[in-house]
Amino acid sequence: MDPAAPRSPFLRSRGLLIPKHPQITTGRLRAALRSDSYERKECDAVARVVQEGDVVLELGGGIGYMSTLLSVTRRVARVTSYEANPALIPYIRSVHAANGVTNVDLHNALLSPEPGPPVAFHVRRNLLASSMDRDSDPDSITRTVQVPRQPLAEALAQVCPTVLVCDIEGAEADLLPAGDWSGLRVAVIELHPQWIGQAGVQAVFDAMHRAGLSYYPKASEAKVVTFRKGW
């Protein structure tokens, strides 16, 4: 490489352009992006089961990687993405813009089983460590904001998803059993048994089975579990 050549403002990962960011694309995350190992299990799962034209509900938008991948490589009709961390919203939009993605409806909100008041969310110097838990490293908090809640039933009625992609750090055990998922064709869920325990894992499986979806081992690996209708 010519040392005089300007450095690219992007990382490349699975054919996507990921904007460099001094507080986000660092350390292990940068290495995982460059090696195409970032969210590998989820990426492998959606590659197996998501089809062109699907309508996706994404719970946990993260850095915008999955919604971009779904739009660019799976050519889904639409993604509606919910991300609680307000500090990530501008970055997610920059990832979408870098890849020409225009079919993602992004919400800075929490889905909840019932209506309720906004929830305090604590933004930290390490943006990826921000959370609703104030007590974990309170000295690193730079600001606290109120994140609105939206009832799950309302979101499902508006989106009418055929695919669910869910990574919400343990909230799956309470949220997913509260929804009517019978309209889904596929669900890809990252479980967090270290927080939700066996009862929480069982609650997620039961919720999917009530919706008429069966566990699909060919697109499941470790904590990433896939459910599919009619296979």
UniProtKB/TrEMBL annotation:
Keyword Methyltransferase: yes
All residue ranges annotated as the Methyltransferase FkbM domain in the record: 63-209
Alphabetical list of SUPFAM superfamilies matching this protein: S-adenosyl-L-methionine-dependent methyltransferases (SSF53335)
Biological process terms in GO annotation: methylation
Coiled coil: none
Pfam families found in the cross-reference section: Methyltransf_21
Keyword Methyltransferase carried by entry: yes
Gene Ontology molecular function: any one: methyltransferase activity
Domain of life of the organism encoding this protein: Bacteria
Keywords: Methyltransferase, Transferase
Protein name: Methyltransferase, FkbM family
Organism in which the protein naturally occurs: Salipiger marinus
